[in-house]
């Protein structure tokens, strides 16, 4: 079922936004949640939550700044991914043995 929903999302998204933008919209939430969660179920749930939050933030920012919504959503997800990555690296570098 997940594969069918993913395929439909990709096909419809490519027609609306283009190949590069839709690939980043699908990859960023999964990448971010894989860095935080350990089980497959929690990765899927966390990726869905991250995607919805970044969608709302991106649409709001695009309305305020009068920019395209797709690019703002990608920038929100990129910032989210960068903050998770940097916080995980800080935890590793300051770990006490």
Low-pLDDT segments, ≥5 res:
none
Alpha carbon gap, first and last residue? 44 Å
H/E element string?
HHHH
Whole-number mean pLDDT: 77
Can you walk me through this structure?
This protein has 97 residues and is mostly helical. The chain is 87% helix and 0% strand. The protein is built from four helices and no strands. It has helices spanning 2-16, 19-36, 40-65, 69-93. Helix 2 (19-36) crosses helix 3 (40-65) and helix 2 runs parallel beside helix 4. It starts with a helix and ends with a helix.
Helix and strand topology:
Elements lengths: L1 H15 L2 H18 L3 H26 L3 H25 L4
Helix pairs in contact: 1-2, 2-3, 2-4, 3-4
Question: Which keywords apply here?
Answer:
97 residues, 4 helices, mainly alpha
Short précis:
This protein has 97 residues and is mainly alpha-helical. 87% of the residues lie in helices and 0% in strands.
């Amino acid at each position: 079922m997940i594969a069918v929903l993913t395929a439909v999302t990709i096909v419809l998204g490519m027609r609306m936004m283009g190949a590069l933008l839709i690939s980043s919209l699908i990859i960023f939430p999964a990448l971010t949640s894989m860095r935080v969660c350990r089980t497959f179920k929690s990765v899927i749930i966390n990726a869905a939550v991250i995607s919805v939050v970044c969608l709302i933030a991106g649409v709001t920012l695009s309305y305020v700044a009068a920019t395209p919504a797709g690019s703002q959503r990608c920038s929100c997800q990129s910032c989210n991914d960068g903050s998770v990555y940097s916080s995980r690296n800080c935890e590793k570098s300051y770990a006490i043995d």
